[in-house]
Amino acid sequence: MAQLVGLETLMPAGAQDMRAALDGQGCSSSSCGSSSGPSDMPAEIWEKVKDHPCYSEEAHHYFARMHVAVAPACNIQCNYCNRKYDCANESRPGVVSEKLTPVQARRKVISVANEVPQLSVLGIAGPGDACYDWRKTRETFELISADIPDIKLCLSTNGLMLPDRVDEIERMNIDHVTITINMVDPEIGTKIYPWIFYQNRRWTGLDASKILHERQMLGLEMLTARGILTKINSVMIPGVNDQHLMEVNRVVKGKGAFLHNIMPLISDPAHGTHYGLTGQRGPRAMELKALQDKLSDGTKLMRHCRQCRADAVGLLGEDRGQEFTMDLVADEVEYDPTKRETYREVVAEERGQHVAARQKVDVALASVDADEAMLVAVATKGGGRINQHFGHAKEFQIYEVSPAGVTFVGHRKAEQYCEGGWGEDATLDGVIAALEGVRVILCAKIGDCPRESLSAAGIEATDAFAHDWIEAGISGWYAREHASYARQIA
Amino acid sequence: MAYKIITSQCTVCGACEFECPNAAITLKNDLYVINPKKCTECAGHFDMAQCAAVCPVPNTCVPA
């Protein structure tokens, strides 16, 4: 059954091809416990998030975002960030973003919108702070929304200048704002923020963290009061704020945050950050998951974050930024809405089928005679299917399956095993380490050699569910593991 | 009495440009420079030189 294509191959296609590629019988796309679909939230909220890949786990299979790096100036110093290489948690190491002027950003966004029909969101995430470098942020949004009125605007900020911008954020219809909040206790803040710049002076120590904390809380309250969806990003720093993030979660939820996204600290001496140079480690994947599991009770928790670059382009987990560097962007550009409109119609149809199909999987799983929750890794190129070769995967999507259903729990990055036909054993060891706790890998294809090595490490790998919808494949595998379960969802 | 920018360390983020109360900092050939004729080290405006206070790289905005 089903088709073999990832959404990225749809670019030049017309509606018919798009439909063929996305269409399938049977089951569902993804169900993330929290931000999965319309049944979880009021209709007006769903309307806001359904096309935003960062706010809806379900949307991230279909829709793409792009960030434009127009805001390089920042007003705080974080111990996980080295400004010379941009923010380590916004951007992969050693790669300096191409900084853009607002006018260049307009050309770039229009070029992408004409080529990438999945584009739904334009974000400004620095590489400094969007609310501090506000003139450039505002000009960029104003220019681009004049050309592409239906593009969703979002920004991320450290929160320090946010209260001063809320009126304009509301006026400009920026309805998604992310605040990075790593603590609600300024004492803990002193271990994360060496200084801030506020009201014409540099503040250090407890003063700095107190001011930052108060401004973050005020900004969050102001956004919530205006009905602007607010996501909280928290960097999990073992030994510094890992235990404290439970409290952060409680506080931000109480103040009306829509989503809480726990991100692992990225720390490496090569990045030249304070944490990197002092040997502060980041959390292991299972530590991150354990914390997320503790927080998931009653909270909307985002688990599909890719900590993407401040100039990322494409579906989450892919970065097509290199295809749209300024030297490749035409001097004169004009927006052509046809591809994006067609794509939206196709996705709207597709999603209706998924809702019904997902319910089918849930019913089938509920009858399995087992109580074991298992972690499953999936190699996918997007579109909600098991459609990537094991050797081509740079990351795996991780799902938890039990009779209660299939839940997306996160992704794990791994080095690509196959480089031009050659598999490296050292790389495979890295993949095995990255997949700690995982029972099975579902992929489109895998060679005998890596399959046997994985098996020796206790991880099954199979292409038996190649090109199935992710949930269908997972429940099919789970059923096979528990033989008492009839193949109801084949 | 003026500050200067050590350009080899500058990240070209531009924070100093809009914090400067004297409009003494401008972008020239993709590098920020301080016009010493306009720079007052923020005397009369603020307690500390704004460029140095906001600069993310230590010892990059310094007395000339």
TrEMBL record, chain A:
CDD domains for the chain: NifB, Radical_SAM
GO MF annotation terms: 4 iron, 4 sulfur cluster binding; lyase activity; metal ion binding
Domain of life: Bacteria
Family per record: Belongs to the radical SAM superfamily. NifB family.
Gene name for this UniProt entry: nifB
Pfam families membership: Nitro_FeMo-Co, Radical_SAM
UniProt keyword annotations, A-Z: 4Fe-4S, Iron, Iron-sulfur, Lyase, Metal-binding, Nitrogen fixation, S-adenosyl-L-methionine
Residues in Radical SAM core domain copies: 60-311
Biological function: Involved in the biosynthesis of the iron-molybdenum cofactor (FeMo-co or M-cluster) found in the dinitrogenase enzyme of the nitrogenase complex in nitrogen-fixing microorganisms. NifB catalyzes the crucial step of radical SAM-dependent carbide insertion that occurs concomitant with the insertion of a 9th sulfur and the rearrangement/coupling of two [4Fe-4S] clusters into a [8Fe-9S-C] cluster, the precursor to the M-cluster.
Biological or metabolic pathway of the protein: Cofactor biosynthesis; Fe-Mo cofactor biosynthesis
Identification of the protein by name: FeMo cofactor biosynthesis protein NifB
Family matches, as SUPFAM superfamilies: Nitrogenase accessory factor-like, Radical SAM enzymes
UniProt cofactor(s): [4Fe-4S] cluster
From TrEMBL, chain B:
Co-factor requirement: [4Fe-4S] cluster
The keyword Iron-sulfur is assigned to this record: yes
A GO molecular function held by the record: 4 iron, 4 sulfur cluster binding
Coiled-coil residue windows: none
A Pfam match: Fer4_10
InterPro entries: 4Fe4S_Fe-S-bd (IPR017896), 4Fe4S_Fe_S_CS (IPR017900)
Domain spans labelled 4Fe-4S ferredoxin-type: 1-30
The protein, known as: 4Fe-4S binding protein
Source organism of this protein record: Gluconacetobacter azotocaptans
